[in-house]
Amino acid sequence: MVDEWRFPNRATPAGSSAYYSLRVAPRDLRDDLATLLAWRHQVRAVLDQVSDPGVARLKLQWWRDELEHTVAGEPRHPLSKALQPVLQRHELPQDAFREMVHSVESEVLRRQPVNETELDDACDRDLGALFELITRCHGLHDAGLLRSARRLGGFCGRVYLIRDSGALARLGRAVLPVDQLREHGLSARALTQREHRRQLPALLAPAAQRARTTLA
């Protein structure tokens, strides 16, 4: 059912920050924005629903193919059927959707950002891409505004990494760049162990300060 992706949906449940963000959006945009958030939600769900990297990559490729079908006017998934008019109405670029898929695939393959620049790029390809799409839905197409939207999305991505660092570290997912972990004799694998995770608060303090500087 296409209606299940209207606001509020599983990506914007009542009480969530996404829900309240869309509540203050223009009424005629809420369903469109909820559909965008749902698309990212479904793609990122592969991380939690599939443990085998090979199977996960196949699922992600399916979403890439489904995007092509949707753009061609042949959506198959109910979410894609809801997304198709949103793509057309706001002339949304496919590349932003592909970047979000690529971001998930990098996490599936445990590709750890080597340095701060790569970590920034990873966040920009995920929430940054989503924020760009949201901005375009609001009718804003100035290149400077779109860059700012990307940076704000990337900032939110960094905040979520810091907030969820304990849970992500237990799963061996990227929390900090490789070069920073190496300075302390650590790795993503090491942080899966409780004794090493005790160092996280000290490691994350500079990351939090850098995020604040980026926002400023």
- Mean pLDDT reading: 95
The percentage of residues in β strands lies in: under 5%
What summary fits the major beta sheet?
none
Can you tell me the residue ranges where pLDDT is under 50 for at least 5 consecutive residues?
none
Query: What class, by secondary structure content?
Result: mainly alpha
How would the global form be characterised?
Answer: globular
Q: How helix-rich are the residues, as a percent range?
A: 55-70%
Rg from Cα: 18 Å
Number of helices: 11
**H/E element sequence:** HHHHHHHHHHH
- Report the strand count: 0
Terminal residue distance: 43 Å
Oligomer: single chain
Written description of the protein model:
The chain is mainly alpha-helical. Helix content is 69%, strand content 0%. The chain contains eleven helices and no strands. Helix 2 packs across helix 4 and helix 2 (30-49) packs parallel to helix 5 (94-108). The termini are far apart.
In short:
The chain is mainly α. It is built from 11 helices and no strands. Helix 2 crosses helix 4 (78-90).
Sequence-ordered SSE layout with sheet pairings:
Elements: H1 17-23, H2 30-49, H3 53-71, H4 78-90, H5 94-108, H6 116-137, H7 143-163, H8 165-170, H9 178-183, H10 194-197, H11 200-215
Pick out its properties.
single chain; 216 residues; mainly alpha; 11 helices; 69% helix
